[in-house]
Amino acid sequence: MVRELFSESHPISSDLRWNTHIDSIHKKAFKKLGFLKRRLKLAAPETKLTAHKTLIRPILEYCDIVWPPYTHLHASKLEKIQKLSLRFIYNKYNSTDSITELYNRSGLPTLDKRRRINRLKFLYLILHDRVRIDRSNYLVPFHPRSTRHSRSHALKPFQARINIFKASYFPQTVEAWNALPESIATLPTCEAFVVSLRDHLV
């Protein structure tokens, strides 16, 4: 029998699959979008976009660095809210209205891209002692025997045999970190790092 735990206002199932957590976020964001549709029906797109960034997106991104959507289904469920919000922002509800064009028009990245950027940004901060986490407990420089493709910024990968652990913060983010070009990973400031990430990640 799977029991539910609670963190803040979001329930988490004890099997760590986050189904209840994702459902709770989806319900909360959908309700907030309905509120905005009633209150901002005649507002300009710029006003609606600001409302989305301020009131809806933070709900969709609640603790997503450590509790990312575990499956494609979970990720799609949250992204669907942002897509619905974009259609509301520009009053484009026809199936022929391209959601890709709405993303481009708004300048909004997908939630998946923002999650990847935020996870890597947080790892950058850990590595540069900008947050109160002892990096030596989790992160070890990686120096493989073969130096042909080695990178100075590489970290020792986690040996994750269980999918849930593999999808958790450190295993997933270290893998993404090691895949970064050295020219990005070694940038001297977090601001420059994030700007380069936005251009690098698709």
From TrEMBL:
<protein>
    <submittedName>
        <fullName>Tetraspanin</fullName>
    </submittedName>
</protein>
